[in-house]
Amino acid sequence: MYRLPIKALIPGIFLLISSFSQKYPPVKFLSEKDRKRILITGGAGFVGSHLTDKLMMDGHEVTVVDNFFTGRKRNVEHWIGHENFELINHDVVEPLYIEVDQIYHLASPASPPNYMYNPIKTLKTNTIGTLNMLGLAKRVGARLLLASTSEVYGDPEVHPQNEEYWGHVNPIGPRACYDEGERVTETMCFAYLEQEGVEVRVARIFNTFGSRMHMKDGRVVSNFILQALQGEPLTVRPLLLALLLFLSLGNPEEHTILEFAELIRSLVVSRSQIQFLPEGQDDPQRRQPDIRKAKMMLGWEPVVPLEEGLNKTIQYFSRELEHQANNQYIPKPKAARQKKGQPRQHN
Hints:
Oligomer: single chain
Number of helices: 9
Mean pLDDT: 80
CATH topology of the largest domain: Rossmann fold
Subcellular location: Golgi apparatus, Golgi stack membrane
Distance between the termini: 59 Å
Helix content: 25-40%
EC number: 4.1.1.35
Family: Belongs to the NAD(P)-dependent epimerase/dehydratase family. UDP-glucuronic acid decarboxylase subfamily.
Largest sheet: 7 strands, parallel
Number of strands: 13
Membrane topology: Single-pass type II membrane protein
Keywords: Decarboxylase, Glycoprotein, Golgi apparatus, Lyase, Membrane, NAD, Signal-anchor, Transmembrane, Transmembrane helix
């Protein structure tokens, strides 16, 4: 029987060891009394994965639940195998039985192409999914934060929009599955607060951009950056105004869509032309957050300058396009076991 010499086996042994010795970002140590068990639904998405990073690095135990409709494993794969992290492939329309101290409920498609792709599924995720998370919060005594949206304002008639404004929404339009779905999730939260004493928080997040944003997100910044990088016309719907932020509640500084197109084209150094398209049904004409309450109660205000956030996003998209062109993306070793929830139900 032929046997390989020990020297010939050493490279393979080191390769095997290195595949299970994954390095993680620095994590703060928290004592048992300070460390929270935190559930993040939609935690493999753009915003959710950044929240996962923050809570993990703060030293908490984080469980990410995602059905990967718009989220991606690669957004959180740098934590897989860490003792404080768990990833569960699960759809929130199915009940989840887990012991946690806090719940960050971000599970919902947020861009128009995604939420209009399957309106009934979007409604089920927002309604049944939120009921399941509120039921879980009630059972285990957890605090729940709902990541709501500026879409609850619809096409607002009041500017800027504060927390007391009820909005102006078409309940049967193409965007209604998301707009009204998110409005009812807020109603559910406050019903559970009043009737069951569940501790809830609601954050209405305006449009976001940054690294880990899906290239096919379909919203204005991702569209402009992708079009500019690929030398395609930047498609602008006239009259619209948009407020952008970087992983936060909102930026009160107003910019027209055309201003964004021109700025992104300049930052990319692109020769793309600007092409105007007809206005979409129920597209909001103007949206601007009133952040006075956030500043007063939380001491929060935007800190990332617009051009800095755009440049970081452009760099991320450039790397993504380069990897895509050269087929260079190689998944990192996944040493952790991934639990799977119940099978997803379809309409």
